[in-house]
Amino acid sequence: MTPSVLLDGIVHGDPAGQRRAMAKAITLLESTRADHRAQGDELLTALLPHTGKAFRLGISGVPGVGKSTFIEALGLYLIDKGHRVAVLTVDPSSTVSGGSILGDKTRMEKLSVHEQAYIRPSPSSGTLGGVAEKTREAMLVCEAAGYDIVIVETVGVGQSETAVSGMTDMFVLMQLPNAGDDLQAIKKGVMELADLVVINKADLDPDAATHARAQITSSLRLLGLHGHPEHAHHDERIWHPQVIQLSALLGRGVDAFWAEVSRFRALQAGNGQLAARRQQQARAWMWERIDAGLKQRFRAHPKVRAALDNATQRVLAGTLPASTAARQLLDLFD
Known about the structure:
Layout: H1 3-12, H2 15-30, H3 34-47, E1 55-61, H4 67-80, E2 85-91, H5 104-107, H6 109-112, E3 117-123, H7 135-144, E4 149-153, H8 160-165, E5 170-175, H9 182-186, E6 196-199, H10 206-225, E7 242-245, H11 254-270, H12 273-300, H13 302-317, H14 322-333
Parallel strand pairs: 1-4, 1-5, 2-3, 2-4, 5-6, 6-7
Helix pairs in contact: 1-2, 1-3, 2-3, 2-7, 13-14
């Protein structure tokens, strides 16, 4: 399909045709072939006027915290409220085989077959942060197709949370009731990225969930004031990260969760922070793609390719400092 045909199918197609066009468009955008990349750029430019109206929600958490169960419960709740929900899930790629199970869709049995939902699993492909490199572009496809809630679920390990926070309007971190002590809650700088912390499986140990909520609330308050003494907790013009308990499996607390998200959206839209956040993300996205493109062109440069193996061997043998090798190769790229 040409970009113009894909555009028409995404924006104006019937339900079946639209899904097919979306799948083909995202596959095109994920391709690394130069001709596909050019077609993808043409498609994205054409899609842009139809995007920007959806709310982008990022959800992360350690494996086993119940992300897929929660997203299914939330998605069905939102569809009942009249929304159209797109879910972009990122599965870790094996460092050995390079493959990915892409199993999130199978864990959302009801949501995956609903006509008002669209679920697209993608492999992380080793991308730093665990978020598939083209997730941002896939979000634009979903928005252009009329999905007004786009959920990005990612691998909850390492610094994947940073990448999700950098492409969504709101970042939700899911925790277990007995996840650990106070320091566990704020390690690696993950907690300070969260706009909302959800303690899932609260039904298993209500006391532990209540204790965890108190600990995390205290940690968030300290993090919020650190370096920002003007962010007084009673200032209602500024969003202060909240902590809530719920049970996704039993469907309890989903309405309270969405009430907090709606309050966040209204507040951030009103004070201009939502628009500012998207502008910062667009700038960061541009520079990220520049960095990736420069690296790709550097590796493809004839002089660099001719000298790379020899320089690598000398670095490995300890006869050439890595920094010197890098500078010499960069000089060849000039």
